[in-house]
Design goal:
The protein is mostly helical and 200 residues long. It has a domain of 104 residues: Cytochrome Bc1 Complex, Chain D, domain 2 (Orthogonal Bundle), CATH 1.10.760. It has 11 helices and no strands. Helix 4 packs across helix 10 and helix 8 packs across helix 9. The mean pLDDT is 87. The structure holds heme C (HEC). Heme C binds next to helix 5, helix 7, helix 8 and helix 9.
Length: 200
Protein backbone atom coordinates (compact mmCIF):
# COMPACT_ATOMS: atom_id res chain seq x y z
CA UNK A 1 0.00 0.00 0.00
CA UNK A 2 1.23 3.48 -0.70
CA UNK A 3 2.26 5.82 2.05
CA UNK A 4 -0.69 8.10 1.39
CA UNK A 5 -3.10 5.29 2.00
CA UNK A 6 -1.38 4.33 5.23
CA UNK A 7 -1.50 7.92 6.38
CA UNK A 8 -5.20 8.17 5.53
CA UNK A 9 -5.90 4.97 7.38
CA UNK A 10 -4.01 6.18 10.43
CA UNK A 11 -5.98 9.43 10.47
CA UNK A 12 -9.27 7.58 10.20
CA UNK A 13 -8.29 5.24 13.01
CA UNK A 14 -7.15 8.08 15.23
CA UNK A 15 -10.33 10.01 14.58
CA UNK A 16 -12.36 6.91 15.36
CA UNK A 17 -10.46 6.30 18.57
CA UNK A 18 -10.89 9.95 19.53
CA UNK A 19 -14.63 9.81 19.01
CA UNK A 20 -14.74 6.55 20.94
CA UNK A 21 -13.08 7.85 24.08
CA UNK A 22 -14.81 11.23 23.83
CA UNK A 23 -18.14 9.61 24.63
CA UNK A 24 -19.74 11.50 21.72
CA UNK A 25 -20.81 8.23 20.19
CA UNK A 26 -22.55 5.65 22.34
CA UNK A 27 -20.11 2.91 23.35
CA UNK A 28 -20.88 -0.37 21.73
CA UNK A 29 -19.26 -2.76 24.12
CA UNK A 30 -19.92 -1.59 27.66
CA UNK A 31 -21.67 -4.05 29.90
CA UNK A 32 -24.40 -1.62 30.90
CA UNK A 33 -26.22 -1.45 27.62
CA UNK A 34 -27.95 -4.56 26.40
CA UNK A 35 -26.55 -5.65 23.04
CA UNK A 36 -28.77 -4.85 20.09
CA UNK A 37 -30.89 -7.64 18.73
CA UNK A 38 -28.66 -8.00 15.69
CA UNK A 39 -25.60 -8.22 17.91
CA UNK A 40 -27.17 -10.90 20.09
CA UNK A 41 -28.32 -12.91 17.07
CA UNK A 42 -24.87 -12.68 15.53
CA UNK A 43 -23.26 -13.85 18.77
CA UNK A 44 -25.58 -16.88 18.90
CA UNK A 45 -24.86 -17.70 15.27
CA UNK A 46 -21.13 -17.56 15.92
CA UNK A 47 -21.55 -19.79 18.92
CA UNK A 48 -23.50 -22.37 16.92
CA UNK A 49 -20.90 -22.29 14.15
CA UNK A 50 -18.14 -22.81 16.65
CA UNK A 51 -19.58 -26.18 17.70
CA UNK A 52 -18.18 -29.28 16.04
CA UNK A 53 -20.79 -30.17 13.39
CA UNK A 54 -21.38 -33.69 14.68
CA UNK A 55 -21.91 -32.41 18.23
CA UNK A 56 -25.04 -30.60 17.11
CA UNK A 57 -26.51 -33.71 15.56
CA UNK A 58 -25.98 -36.10 18.46
CA UNK A 59 -29.27 -37.66 19.56
CA UNK A 60 -30.24 -37.87 23.23
CA UNK A 61 -29.75 -41.47 24.41
CA UNK A 62 -32.50 -41.00 27.01
CA UNK A 63 -36.21 -40.57 26.57
CA UNK A 64 -38.23 -38.27 28.78
CA UNK A 65 -40.10 -39.99 31.62
CA UNK A 66 -41.43 -38.97 35.02
CA UNK A 67 -38.42 -40.57 36.73
CA UNK A 68 -35.83 -38.99 34.46
CA UNK A 69 -37.47 -35.58 34.79
CA UNK A 70 -37.63 -35.81 38.57
CA UNK A 71 -33.99 -36.82 38.81
CA UNK A 72 -32.79 -34.11 36.45
CA UNK A 73 -35.03 -31.46 38.04
CA UNK A 74 -33.38 -32.16 41.40
CA UNK A 75 -29.96 -32.08 39.81
CA UNK A 76 -30.84 -28.75 38.17
CA UNK A 77 -32.11 -27.38 41.51
CA UNK A 78 -28.83 -28.32 43.14
CA UNK A 79 -26.34 -27.19 40.48
CA UNK A 80 -27.96 -24.80 38.05
CA UNK A 81 -30.75 -22.93 39.83
CA UNK A 82 -28.43 -20.46 41.60
CA UNK A 83 -28.08 -18.72 38.23
CA UNK A 84 -30.94 -20.07 36.12
CA UNK A 85 -33.69 -20.28 38.79
CA UNK A 86 -35.68 -23.49 39.34
CA UNK A 87 -38.02 -22.47 36.54
CA UNK A 88 -35.16 -21.71 34.12
CA UNK A 89 -36.25 -18.08 33.86
CA UNK A 90 -32.85 -16.76 34.98
CA UNK A 91 -34.51 -14.45 37.45
CA UNK A 92 -32.05 -14.94 40.32
CA UNK A 93 -29.72 -12.42 41.84
CA UNK A 94 -26.72 -14.11 40.27
CA UNK A 95 -28.39 -14.84 36.93
CA UNK A 96 -29.58 -11.26 36.47
CA UNK A 97 -26.28 -9.67 37.35
CA UNK A 98 -24.00 -11.76 35.23
CA UNK A 99 -23.10 -10.34 31.88
CA UNK A 100 -24.45 -11.63 29.62
CA UNK A 101 -27.28 -12.53 32.02
CA UNK A 102 -28.66 -16.04 32.29
CA UNK A 103 -31.31 -16.29 29.55
CA UNK A 104 -34.92 -17.37 30.02
CA UNK A 105 -34.47 -20.94 28.85
CA UNK A 106 -38.22 -21.44 28.41
CA UNK A 107 -38.09 -19.10 25.43
CA UNK A 108 -37.77 -20.16 21.80
CA UNK A 109 -34.13 -19.06 21.52
CA UNK A 110 -33.07 -21.85 23.87
CA UNK A 111 -35.75 -24.36 22.96
CA UNK A 112 -34.76 -24.18 19.30
CA UNK A 113 -31.23 -25.39 20.04
CA UNK A 114 -30.77 -29.07 19.22
CA UNK A 115 -30.35 -31.68 21.99
CA UNK A 116 -26.73 -32.13 20.92
CA UNK A 117 -26.10 -28.40 21.14
CA UNK A 118 -27.62 -28.12 24.64
CA UNK A 119 -25.58 -31.13 25.74
CA UNK A 120 -22.41 -29.60 24.34
CA UNK A 121 -23.10 -26.30 26.12
CA UNK A 122 -23.68 -28.04 29.45
CA UNK A 123 -20.51 -30.11 29.08
CA UNK A 124 -18.26 -27.34 27.82
CA UNK A 125 -19.74 -24.14 29.19
CA UNK A 126 -19.79 -20.91 27.21
CA UNK A 127 -16.54 -19.02 26.93
CA UNK A 128 -16.53 -15.35 28.02
CA UNK A 129 -19.72 -15.83 30.01
CA UNK A 130 -20.68 -16.99 33.49
CA UNK A 131 -21.79 -20.37 32.14
CA UNK A 132 -19.35 -22.93 33.56
CA UNK A 133 -18.41 -26.33 32.06
CA UNK A 134 -19.93 -29.24 33.95
CA UNK A 135 -18.76 -32.76 34.61
CA UNK A 136 -15.33 -34.23 34.38
CA UNK A 137 -13.52 -33.75 31.06
CA UNK A 138 -12.99 -36.78 28.88
CA UNK A 139 -16.32 -38.41 29.63
CA UNK A 140 -17.95 -38.11 26.27
CA UNK A 141 -21.31 -39.49 27.19
CA UNK A 142 -22.36 -37.97 30.45
CA UNK A 143 -25.74 -39.34 31.47
CA UNK A 144 -26.54 -36.54 33.89
CA UNK A 145 -25.99 -33.92 31.20
CA UNK A 146 -28.20 -35.72 28.67
CA UNK A 147 -30.93 -35.91 31.31
CA UNK A 148 -30.52 -32.20 32.04
CA UNK A 149 -31.19 -31.59 28.34
CA UNK A 150 -34.54 -33.36 28.77
CA UNK A 151 -35.28 -31.21 31.80
CA UNK A 152 -34.51 -28.02 29.84
CA UNK A 153 -36.98 -29.20 27.18
CA UNK A 154 -39.55 -29.70 29.93
CA UNK A 155 -39.09 -26.19 31.43
CA UNK A 156 -41.97 -24.54 29.53
CA UNK A 157 -44.36 -27.13 31.03
CA UNK A 158 -43.04 -27.20 34.59
CA UNK A 159 -45.82 -27.61 37.17
CA UNK A 160 -46.20 -26.01 40.61
CA UNK A 161 -45.74 -29.44 42.22
CA UNK A 162 -42.48 -29.99 40.39
CA UNK A 163 -41.26 -26.56 41.47
CA UNK A 164 -42.09 -27.34 45.10
CA UNK A 165 -40.16 -30.60 44.90
CA UNK A 166 -37.15 -28.79 43.46
CA UNK A 167 -37.06 -26.28 46.30
CA UNK A 168 -36.10 -29.09 48.64
CA UNK A 169 -32.94 -29.61 46.59
CA UNK A 170 -31.75 -26.02 46.30
CA UNK A 171 -28.43 -25.62 48.09
CA UNK A 172 -28.86 -24.20 51.58
CA UNK A 173 -26.47 -22.25 53.72
CA UNK A 174 -25.83 -23.24 57.33
CA UNK A 175 -27.88 -20.20 58.40
CA UNK A 176 -30.86 -21.39 56.30
CA UNK A 177 -30.63 -24.83 57.83
CA UNK A 178 -30.43 -23.44 61.37
CA UNK A 179 -33.45 -21.25 60.80
CA UNK A 180 -35.45 -24.15 59.36
CA UNK A 181 -34.53 -26.35 62.29
CA UNK A 182 -35.57 -23.69 64.78
CA UNK A 183 -38.88 -23.24 63.03
CA UNK A 184 -39.49 -26.96 62.99
CA UNK A 185 -38.60 -27.32 66.66
CA UNK A 186 -40.83 -24.41 67.56
CA UNK A 187 -43.77 -25.85 65.64
CA UNK A 188 -43.26 -29.16 67.39
CA UNK A 189 -43.18 -27.31 70.71
CA UNK A 190 -39.74 -28.83 71.27
CA UNK A 191 -36.55 -27.36 72.63
CA UNK A 192 -36.78 -24.25 70.50
CA UNK A 193 -35.87 -21.17 72.19
CA UNK A 194 -37.58 -18.61 74.27
CA UNK A 195 -41.19 -18.84 73.29
CA UNK A 196 -41.52 -22.51 74.15
CA UNK A 197 -43.30 -22.87 77.49
CA UNK A 198 -40.91 -24.15 80.14
CA UNK A 199 -42.05 -26.93 82.38
CA UNK A 200 -41.45 -26.46 86.09
C1 LIG B 1 -22.68 -19.30 37.64
C2 LIG B 1 -23.91 -19.17 36.91
C3 LIG B 1 -24.41 -20.35 36.11
C4 LIG B 1 -24.60 -21.65 36.52
C5 LIG B 1 -24.36 -22.22 37.93
C6 LIG B 1 -25.13 -22.37 35.40
N1 LIG B 1 -25.26 -21.54 34.32
FE1 LIG B 1 -26.00 -22.03 32.46
N2 LIG B 1 -25.68 -20.14 31.82
C7 LIG B 1 -25.21 -19.10 32.60
C8 LIG B 1 -25.16 -17.90 31.79
C9 LIG B 1 -24.71 -16.54 32.25
C10 LIG B 1 -25.61 -18.26 30.49
C11 LIG B 1 -25.75 -17.35 29.29
C12 LIG B 1 -24.48 -17.35 28.49
C13 LIG B 1 -24.67 -16.62 27.18
O1 LIG B 1 -25.40 -15.65 27.12
O2 LIG B 1 -24.05 -17.03 26.19
C14 LIG B 1 -25.92 -19.68 30.56
C15 LIG B 1 -26.38 -20.40 29.49
C16 LIG B 1 -26.80 -21.71 29.55
C17 LIG B 1 -27.34 -22.44 28.43
C18 LIG B 1 -27.52 -21.92 27.01
C19 LIG B 1 -28.88 -21.30 26.85
C20 LIG B 1 -29.01 -20.50 25.60
O3 LIG B 1 -30.15 -20.26 25.15
O4 LIG B 1 -28.01 -20.04 25.07
C21 LIG B 1 -27.67 -23.70 28.89
C22 LIG B 1 -28.29 -24.82 28.10
C23 LIG B 1 -27.31 -23.73 30.30
N3 LIG B 1 -26.78 -22.51 30.67
C24 LIG B 1 -27.51 -24.81 31.12
C25 LIG B 1 -27.05 -24.89 32.45
C26 LIG B 1 -27.15 -26.07 33.27
C27 LIG B 1 -27.84 -27.36 32.86
C28 LIG B 1 -26.54 -25.78 34.45
C29 LIG B 1 -26.32 -26.70 35.64
C30 LIG B 1 -25.66 -27.96 35.41
C31 LIG B 1 -26.09 -24.39 34.38
N4 LIG B 1 -26.42 -23.89 33.14
C32 LIG B 1 -25.46 -23.71 35.41
C33 LIG B 1 -24.85 -19.16 33.92
C34 LIG B 1 -24.84 -20.30 34.71
Amino acid sequence: MSRVLWAALTVVLLLGAGLWVSGLVPHCCGARQAPSRAEAALARRLRTWSLPADARQRPNPFASSTEVLQESARHFADHCASCHGNDGGGNTEMGRNLYPPAPDMREAATQQLSDGELYYIIRNGIRWTGMPAWGEPGNDNDQDSWKLVLFIRHLPKLTADELRDMERFNPKSDADRKEEKEEEDFLKGGPAGDQAPKSR
